[in-house]
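Feature request, filed as a ticket because there's no other form

It would be nice if the structure record came with a short human-readable summary line next to the tokens. Right now we just get the raw output. Example of a typical job, pasted below so the devs can see what we mean:
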Amino acid sequence: MKEESLNFKSNNFREKEREILVVELKQLMREAFAKDLLGFSEKIVQKTEDLKNKYPGYDYESYEMWHILISSTPRERMKYFDFPDKDIEKFIRLESTSDKV
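Raw output as currently delivered:
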């Protein structure tokens, strides 16, 4: 299956914009964890399963937002930023604004 995503090179995704977005989303995740550590953790596990079902065959390790979501450190520069529908960014924004995550 062809992976379509926000590719750093082909979509002219500027490095500075990426850095600002990453800082913002990591802060939103910290806030969501602070509201409900266990609940947000469970939602992250569910979201990873949902993404695997929505995007079967994708190389998840090639997505920077995947690593942000699961709080892992990528070993190298990622080829992609987020999935085609900005699934992870939308998830983080939605969950961080919930009264109870």
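Something like this underneath would help us a lot:
The chain has four helices and no strands.
The two ends are 33 Å apart (CA to CA).
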